[in-house]
Amino acid sequence: MEQARETGEHLREQFGDERVSVYISPYRRTHETFRAFDLDPARVRVREEPRLREQDWGNWQDRDDVRLQKAYRDAYGHFFYRFAQGESGADVYDRVGAFL
After folding, report:
1. Beta pairing partners, 21
2. pTM of structure
3. Most-buried pick from 19, 35, 67, 81 (CB within 10 A)?
4. pLDDT of residue 57
5. pLDDT tens digits along 53-79
6. Strands 44-48, 20-24: parallel, antiparallel or unpaired by DSSP?
């Protein structure tokens, strides 16, 4: 969290008295990091945006299945391979691109 506190200090210097909007993912870790920035809530409008969440890697319970899926990914291509019950890099690109 030290890095987040230092980043917050830098952001406060950059923003000054300016009002800003911030978009964060719904994940707890993202909220914790944002809180560590210690930005003035009167100057920051926070919006939770589910399209900004990290990649869903799917179900990784069965070791043999994981090995098989990794082999498929290596053969098919890392960016386009979709893990079972998960997302491919292309899926993430499309999801985040729709937000931007």
Report:
1. 45
2. 0.75
3. 81
4. 87
5. 999 988 777 788 888 888 999 998 999
6. parallel
